[in-house]
Amino acid sequence: MAEVLSQSEIDALLSAISTGEMDANELKKEESQKKVKVYDFKRALRFSKDQIRSLTRIHENFARLLTTYFSAQLRTFVQITVASVDQLPYDEFIRSVPKMTILNVFEPYPLDGRFLIEVNPNIAYAMLDRLLGGRGIALNKVDNLTEIETRIMTQLFQRTLESFQEAWSTVVELDPQMDELEVNPQFLQMVSPNETVVVISLSTAIGEATGMINICLPHVVLEDILPKLSVHYWMQTKKKSRLPEEVEALENNVRNAPLVINVELGKSEISIQEFLQLDIGDTIELNSLIDDPLIIKVGNVPKFLAQPGKVKNKLAIQVTEVIEEGENNE
Fold it and tell me: Where would you find this protein in the cell (predicted)?
């Protein structure tokens, strides 16, 4: 994209040309020359801008869901927002992670491979302190977690995967499962060092503690669903055509659907006093005549008019007229 100049920069440029400080011919010559851009093969850009924007949108939703989840679990002020979305080699990401941190590794079924959520110790131990009844103070803890602490942290972050699943539901139905919780990134090798990963950094504040939550998504794991992250996929409105066999099966199911049909012989209104005094053998006078047509209701909706009769000594009705929509026959 060409650089857009502000009005003051445009005025300064015109002034420099008019005073002779800059030569317009030299500018045209520079513009006609081919511009060379340095490309670093170690930092191969595997994700398009379209896909980065889609990943940003997905994880902005994830950040909102996490804010709600942690606020309910920790019962304190929580604010989580997307700070940046970058693509870089996996080795570079691992080297940027603190030597002792909280690494949640999970498998995003049905995708092959593993994702990683790295939680800064400043944030992780503030969460742990809140869960254990403290004020949510970030502990200066650098040793390994105890078995109890590991169990508590695993359960806490396992449930964040429900929010991750919901955030991704518009793109793909995932069933993420926690694989392991690690504290030393040197012992973690998810993909090859040169593999491109996209890192979503979430700026997190829990009470007075602040830090980052980093989500690492390897390109090799997302490769199969990358087309779904483009704008073209989101804007598609092409209808899915049904096969003739599917249409026929649907029609047969509709034809065989049961319907409740009622026939009204007539109506009557009586007082509560009269109703309470009813006894066996009493007769209730209806408001319709013998010659009046009967109303056939399908699912409590008037559909036909009919006349009563008998077929083989059984009570029956004969449809005489179809009630058009909008007619009131009650």
Answer: Bacterial flagellum basal body; Cell membrane
| 164 and 311 together in one domain | no
pTM above 0.70, yes or no: no
Buried b (16+ CB within 10 A) or exposed e, 71-91: eeebebebebebeebebbbbb
> End-to-end CA distance of the chain, in Å?
70
Instruction: Estimate to the nearest angstrom the gap between the alpha carbon of 148 and the chain centroid.
Output: 33
**In angstroms, rounded to a whole number, what is the distance separating the alpha carbons of residues 304 and 296?**
5
Structural domain for 142, as ranges: 42-235
Q: Token match 């010659």: residue?
A: 291
In this structure, are residues 229 and 116 in contact, taking their beta carbons and an 8 Å threshold?
no
CATH number assigned to the domain comprising residue 265:
2.30.330.10
Q: What is the pLDDT of residue 317?
A: 83
210 is a domain residue? yes
Spans in the chain with pLDDT lower than 70: 1-8, 20-44, 140-143, 231-241, 325-330
